[in-house]
Amino acid sequence: MANLTSFIKYALLVIALSLLSGGANSVQARHLLDTSLPEIAVPQIPDGIIPSLPQVELPPLPEIPTLPMPELPTFPVPELPEVPGFPSIPSIPKDLPVPSVTTSNP
Questions:
Q1: Side-chain half-sphere exposure of 85, counting CA atoms within 13 A
Q2: 32 touches 14 (CB < 8 A)
Q3: Domains of the chain: which residue ranges?
Q4: What are the φ/ψ torsions at residue 19 (nearest 5 degrees)?
Q5: Over the chain, what is the mean pLDDT?
């Protein structure tokens, strides 16, 4: 892992120097990169060493119970005062029904 880290640092240094010098040495920098560090070998895994995994059938998910909605409190609606020069606001019923919330379990 240390070889990879030093390779990356070296590559960044070469690229930065190449950019600072106007890019004229980009072919030389690439040649330095190709020849100065040894190649990092990536191990190849032969066929048959890693067995194929069997297909596993998962059991169905359990049904999640739903809880009933609690009763929501009702609050009194205050009367709005009349404001001269503005149209009147229609009266709001004091006891508005609370909408029922239904949930469905998919």
A1: 0
A2: yes
A3: 2-36
A4: -70, -40
A5: 73
E strand or H helix at 2, and its extent?
helix 2-20
* Six token digits for residue 18: 């190449």
User: Containing H/E element for 76?
Assistant: none
User: Tell me: the pLDDT tens digits for 59-100?
Assistant: 898 888 888 888 888 888 777 777 777 776 666 666 777 777
Q: CB–CB of 78/89 below 8 Å?
A: no
SS3 for 84? coil
Q: CA 77 to CA 96: how far, in whole Å?
A: 9
Q: What is the pTM of this model?
A: 0.22
- SS3 of the chain: CHHHHHHHHHHHHHHHHHHHCCCCCHHHHHHHHHHHCCCCCCCCCCCCCCCCCCCCCCCCCCCCCCCCCCCCCCCCCCCCCCCCCCCCCCCCCCCCCCCCCCCCCC
**Which amino acid is present at 28?**
Q
Q: How far is CA 42 from the centre of its chain?
A: 31
